[in-house]
Amino acid sequence: MTTPKLEVKNLSKTFSLNSSLTYTVSSISMRINYGEFVSIIGPSGCGKTTLLNILAGLEKQTTGTIYIDKQKNQKLLGKSGYMLQKPLLLPWKTVLENVMLGLTLKRISEKKAKQEACNMLKKFGLSDYANYYPHALSGGMAQRVALLRTILFNNQFLLMDEPFGALDALTRLSMQMWLLDVWQTYKSSVLFVTHDIREAILLSDRIYVLSSSPATIIKEVNINLPRPRKHEFLKDKKTVEIEQLLEQLLLNL
Amino acid sequence: MKLKTIINLGPAFVLFTTLFTVWEIFVQTSQISNQLLPSPIVIMQAFFRNWNIILPHVQQTLIETLIGIFTAIVIGITTAVLLDTSSWVKRAVYPILVTSQTIPIIALAPLLLIWLGFDIWSKVVVVTLFCYFPITIAMSDGFSRIDKEFINLFKTMNASYIDTMRLLKFPSALPAFFSGLKIAVTYSITGAMVGEYVGAEKGLGVFIQTAANAYAISLVFATIFVTTLLSMLLFILVSILEKMLLPWKEK
Ligand SMILES: Nc1ncnc2c1ncn2[C@@H]1O[C@H](COP(=O)(O)OP(=O)(O)OP(=O)(O)O)[C@@H](O)[C@H]1O
Ligand SMILES: [Mg+2]
């Protein structure tokens, strides 16, 4: 389990604003092992989305190397499943058709794609919603559909940018457990961005703390809680200590 | 649902009826002769009496209009797709497109007649010119209004250009397309008549001219009535098509 799914070395990204170069991401080095759940927390606007965009292949880093499956600087588009805060479901497609999207784009036959999407909806308790249109879904439900769509496209490597950021507290709690359930089924490698320290602790094997702009890693914390995780763990004395440590770190930035 | 539609149409119906009643009373009580300003009832009588004479002209105009709209849709969508290929193309072509709209189509109609002759094609082109612009602009705006994050989502899923068009851009732009098409079809009949005015053997444009030359004012009004009826019919047809193709917009 020591070969990394993702390895990033000295990654930097600059934007030129008004002819002055500003670093958004500055010499970040990090790794995600196979099947590992890694979170990134950091202050608002520090460059987390920029980092994920680079890893997804949407933007190009200024310097630095990215290895996926030990391969260097390959074409990154399509190598990960990228999920955002907005569910981005196509309003003219049903839940089932939305979940199928990745397979459709991979030119997998309609019949087979439908079969797989159906199985997936069934496995994760969304069968009843298969023929709904997105406008009829609650925020939490829409995000579940978005996650299944992402997983069906790529269940090996997931990039998630505050996927539960727009949800209410109660929905968040159930979504977190549901995500862990999905993750454990596929043993995916996950990079998860969040503002919520408790969420990061509950979900992750490891947490990177980023400083504010430019974003650079100031701390790495291992979370040695047993799996499957439970919300009660957050009340453990040791967990509370980690939470306070992280809180202090972020407050002092 | 049915009841609600009727209630929604209620105010418009009341207003229409009131207007026509006022018109009718005005003509009957004043000394204006029906020869100059016919009352609505006289117009309707003229319409029903001459229905079989008007019908072939309606057919002619309708054929020109439908071919013209269809051509405008094809060329309009093609233009919008081309405009969408790069911001360079758009910045170069868009201003030309808008400028071209300031050319009065009425002025072009005689030229088209010279180039294309008396049969339907010169009129078809006039209709196309009328309809092309609203369709192109609406579709192009529809493309550019798509949330960038959707485009990125498709990119991260390695979608090809064709798939992005087919599965994301076209469906996204469809509501905008229909807004443009609705505007276009309301102009279209008028467009065909402008073409016919300049020179034709058949069509509502010709018929209205003949009627006017013969001082058959009630027939002129009857033709105007037919024209509005046809335009409205096209509008309703497009609306129905829109409802059928965009079921997710309903709720
Ligand atoms: N294309 C760009 N040009 C110039 N500056 C940019 C560009 N994209 C992002 N930035 C800047 O980079 C910084 C980091 O942005 P980013 O969205 O990555 O932060 P974030 O950590 O995801 O923020 P949030 O917590 O609000 O989601 C911001 O200050 C932003 O203004
Ligand atoms: Mg962000």
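Strands of chain A lie at 4-17, 20-33, 37-41, 63-68, 71-72, 81-83, 157-161, 189-194, 206-210, 217-222.
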